[in-house]
Specification:
Blueprint: H1 3-32, E1 37-41, E2 46-49, E3 54-64, H2 66-72, E4 94-105, E5 119-122, E6 125-128, H3 131-137, E7 148-157, H4 163-167, E8 175-179, E9 183-188
Parallel strand pairs: 1-9
Antiparallel strand pairs: 2-3, 3-4, 4-7, 5-6, 5-8, 8-9
């Protein structure tokens, strides 16, 4: 048997072994970790985030312009955001998504800080909560029943969207993602 044929057989065997190992690994991972169950909530719904030990009640949401935000919270200060050219983003090219929740810790070790990981999204756009606005808007104290009444603010800018999408930003659907796995927990916002 010529040397080239032996080499091709060996290379073919190696490729088949690698392919079989990949397919076995793919099958094993998908068997152990099935796709996440998608759970969708709306304003008024209550759900739990087991990994954080929190019970969340979705109250309502709105999309504010900067003048509307400053009218509601006159003492609020926003850090200037610059685009790629170094120019500051004008107020008319900014929006603040506000999601109001009631949160009840279910355990003594429940993590309010977990809320920092909850992201707002719409299509390809995704953004984390604005820590700067969160601490200015919320008192951080629970009511007499141990329930926290919180506003989760998310900043968005025109440069994060296509021009046609920004032109229709007030009509765009948004959602908050509270958990990815094993259940995908999403609150569909009504702005």
């Amino acid at each position: 048997m010529p040397y080239k044929k032996i080499r091709r057989l060996i290379m073919g065997g190696i490729v088949l072994c690698l392919l079989a190992a990949f397919l076995f690994g793919f099958w094993r991972v998908n068997r152990e970790y099935p796709p996440a169950e998608r759970l969708v909530y709306r304003a008024g719904d209550t759900f739990t985030i087991e990994e954080a030990g929190l019970e969340i009640t979705a109250m309502g949401s709105e999309l504010l312009t900067i003048p509307q935000l400053k009218e509601r919270y006159p003492d609020i200060s926003l850090a200037p955001i610059a685009e790629g050219d170094g120019e500051s983003v004008p107020d008319e090219e900014k929006r603040i998504l506000m999601a109001e929740i009631q949160m009840r810790p279910l355990t003594d070790s429940a993590g309010i800080s977990y809320l920092q990981t909850c992201g707002a999204q719409s299509g390809a756009w995704r953004h984390s909560m604005s820590r700067q606005l969160y601490v200015q808007i919320n008192t951080g104290d629970p009511d007499e029943e141990g329930v926290y009444h919180l506003i989760l603010p998310y900043e968005m800018y025109a440069f994060q969207f296509l021009k046609k999408d920004w032109a229709a930003i007030d009509d765009r659907p948004f959602e908050l993602v509270f958990s990815l796995y094993p259940s995908l927990k999403i609150w569909e916002l009504e702005t």
